[in-house]
Amino acid sequence: MPQTAAQQIEAAYREKFATSADLYQQGCTLFPSGVTHDSRYLRPFPVYIDRAAGSQKFDVDGNTIIDYWVGHGSLLLGHSRPEVVDAVQRQMALATHPGACHRLELEWGQLVQQLVPSAEKIRFTSSGTEATLMALRVSRIVSGKSKVLKFAGNFHGWHDTLIPAADPPHAAEAYQTPGIPTGVFDDLVIVPPNDIEATAQAIDQHDPACVILEGTGGRWGVVPVRGGFLQQLRQLTAERGVILIMDEVISGFRVHPGGAQAYYDIVPDLTTLAKVLAGGLPGGCLAGRADLLEAIAFGNSLGKKMKHPGTFNANPLSASAGIAALEIVATGEPSQQASEIARQLRAGLNALFDERGVAWIAYGDFSGVKIHPDYEGPRPTGDSFIPFDNDYQQLDRKFDDSLLHALRCALLLGGVDWMGWHGMTSSAHTEADVDQTVEAFSNAIDLLRGDGLLK
Ligand SMILES: Cc1ncc(COP(=O)(O)O)c(C=O)c1O
Fold it and tell me: Which of 249, 261, 270, 281 has most ligand 1 atoms within 8 Å of CB, for mutation?
């Protein structure tokens, strides 16, 4: 019987990544769905990586792959940047966990303070999830209020209050995320992104402790946010006395050394940071107004202190990687280089989709490249183009899962590891990477156009 396109892709994939297929069998005996992060789940199996350098990863079968995950966004400088590797190796031999205050936490904190406009005071955590959790708790302690306003499609980590409505569908009944107590929803107010009127109404109706949003729009800009909206939101929250939290876990240091807040000239009350902050190692922090971070201080004037333990807070290895990375980030070059190469990739992909008559479009800001696989509208006229006039319900949709898995496998066959419907660049990506990636997409289109997976 002749093979379908999907079967052909799978057969070639199994052959090229045979050792990964074997390792995945072991993974399935250990981990749910065989993986340790939801996004790494891939049918028929994910690729196992041994080593990485610059923009490339090297898998267990000896294949070289251009990486568009860049450490889930943490590696703005690319993999194994020598300055970062040296710093961590040096620190490793000195102390991995002194169980004490240390000089590196000061240096690390001072860099955050110098670079991020809102960072009057800082408290380190181990992840971005912990940083947003802390931001809510601090806001509640200081304001004495409990509700939290977030925007549909914004991702702030996986703790109870903020994981609902991080993905489509956006219908209210769909927010009932499994495993989260229903009481959580009493304190959560969800508003359409980029809608200042709806935000103002929701603030007046619910009187929340805080408003939180991603600095460049939900899930790293699937629905982009523009500076005009951020300025309106800053003004609105200041007028209503509501704490504004900018979640810069992904945009921080990546879009600009000072994050989206520096780029758009907005000073939020609180900022959450992680990823690039720790140079590719685990680490996060809450930064912001000194009077708000007082909530964590002993004997504060509020008379209530937020408890904050955490075994790996300000861990010296993460601090050493973070300092080495931020010193380079501070020059401004890495964010510019990563953004420029992503711009070239978006342009190259759009030219390809046009030429091949595929109803796909590439868009995005800074170092993000989004692909919308169901787009028939006008083609981009410039790089700031947003499909569907930024209608969030059109942009932020669930797409065909089989197509997604087949596309990722087809791209891996062409030597490209794409994150799903999006990719991210680092300052280590090159024009040659862009050319190879566009070619890999072209070959993937050929492979997918077999049995109705792609028109
Ligand atoms: C905007 C944003 N906030 C929070 C998080 C959670 O960070 P972590 O994965 O370090 O817990 C992420 C992770 O991707 C993120 O992109």
Answer: 249
Q: Please compute the mean of the pLDDT values over residues 319-335 and round it to a whole number.
A: 98
Query: What is the per-residue pLDDT across 123-172, written as a single tens digit (0 to 9) for each?
Result: 999 999 999 999 999 999 999 999 999 999 999 999 999 999 998 877 65
- Distance from the CA of 420 to the center of ligand 1, in angstroms? 17
> Residue 213 contacts by C-beta under 8 Å, 6 or more apart in sequence?
150, 151, 154, 193, 225, 233, 245, 246, 247
73 CA → ligand 1 middle, Å: 9
Task: Report which of 240, 285, 239, 233 is spatially closest to residue 261, judged by C-alpha positions.
Answer: 233
**Ligand 1 geometric centre to CA of 324 (Å):** 21
CA 57 to CA 53: how far, in whole Å? 6
Q: What is the pTM of this model?
A: 0.97
Ligand 1 neighbour 348 (Cβ under 6 A): no
Tell me how far apart the alpha carbons of residues 36 and 51 are, in angstroms, rounded to a whole number: 18
- Which of 50, 79, 78, 76 lies closest to 63, judged by CA? 50
Report whether residue 156 contacts ligand 1, using a CB cutoff of 6 Å: yes
Backbone angles phi, psi at 286, to 5 degrees: -105, 130
Domain boundaries in the chain?
Answer: 5-78+333-448, 82-329
What pLDDT score was predicted for residue 395?
A: 96
Q: Which residues of 328-353 are buried (b: 16+ CB within 10 A; e: fewer)?
A: bbeeeebbebbbbbbbbbbebbbebb
> In 177-214, which positions are buried (b, 16+ CB within 10 angstroms) versus exposed (e)?
eeebeeebbebbbbbbbbeeeebbebbeebbbbbbbbb
Other CB atoms within 10 A of residue 304 CB: 9
> Bridge-partner residues for 182, per DSSP?
none
CATH of 5-78+333-448, one of 3.40.50.300, 3.90.1150.10, 3.50.30.70, 3.40.50.970: 3.90.1150.10
Q: Is 247 in the pocket of ligand 1 (CB under 6 A)?
A: yes
pLDDT in tens, 63-77: 999 999 999 999 999
- Considering only CA atoms, which residue is closest to atom 3 of ligand 1? 156
- Which of 241, 366, 286, 324 has its CA nearest to residue 123? 286
Which CATH code is given to the segment(s) 82-329? 3.40.640.10
**pLDDT for the residue 2:** 64
